[in-house]
């Protein structure tokens, strides 16, 4: 009986530990964001702005993040902007600015990097009660 009680306590502690670990948010460092976004070209596959997915306005464009902090849309350079990252990583912010023309000016914001991997970058920005999101997929 005592072994069952100890087993129950151990299982409860293990379950608590799993919940605590899974509830922790891990942040990607600014250097990692910079390293990932500047290596390849990207496609905007989702861009929810004020509740509407406007990604189709970028469907024929490829995005390049230059090491010097420029953002360029290809194949025809219609508009360029600039980017920088925050110095901290709780969370890392991607600051995009300098776009004037429609629809590019919708990119101007302080974006929270919620995911940044070799193939996908996800960004979020809260404006009032609205959450805007962008998903970028690496072009191979």
Short descriptors:
140 residues; alpha+beta; Lipocalin; eight-stranded antiparallel barrel; 2 helices; 40% strand; globular
Chain-wise SSE layout:
Layout: H1 2-23, H2 30-39, E1 41-49, E2 52-53, E3 62-65, E4 70-74, E5 80-85, E6 93-97, E7 109-116, E8 120-127, E9 130-138
Please explain how this structure is put together.
- The protein is of the alpha+beta class and 140 residues long.
- It contains 2 helices and 9 strands, in the order H-H-E-E-E-E-E-E-E-E-E.
- The chain has an 8-stranded antiparallel beta barrel with strand order 1-3-4-5-6-7-8-9.
- Strand 5 (80-85) and strand 6 (93-97) form a beta hairpin.
- The radius of gyration is 20 Å and the shape is globular.
- The termini are far apart.
- Residues 15-24 have low confidence and may be disordered.
Concise summary:
The chain has helices at residues 2-23, 30-39; strands spanning 41-49, 52-53, 62-65, 70-74, 80-85, 93-97, 109-116, 120-127, 130-138. It has 140 residues and is α+β, with helices and mostly antiparallel strands. It has a single domain, classed as Beta Barrel (Lipocalin), CATH 2.40.128.
């Amino acid at each position: 009986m005592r072994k069952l009680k100890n087993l129950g306590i151990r299982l409860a502690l293990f379950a608590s530990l799993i919940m605590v670990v899974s509830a922790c948010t891990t942040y990607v460092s600014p250097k990692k964001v910079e390293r990932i976004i500047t290596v390849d070209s990207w496609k905007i596959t989702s861009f929810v702005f004020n509740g509407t997915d406007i990604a189709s306005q970028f469907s024929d464009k490829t995005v390049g993040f230059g090491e010097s902090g420029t953002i360029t849309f290809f194949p025809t350079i219609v508009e360029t902007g600039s980017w920088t990252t925050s110095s901290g990583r709780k969370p890392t912010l991607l600051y995009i600015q300098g776009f004037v023309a429609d629809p590019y000016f919708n990119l101007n914001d302080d974006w929270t990097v919620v995911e940044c991997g070799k193939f996908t970058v996800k960004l979020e920005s809260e404006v009032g009660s609205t959450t805007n999101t962008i998903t970028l997929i690496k072009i191979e």
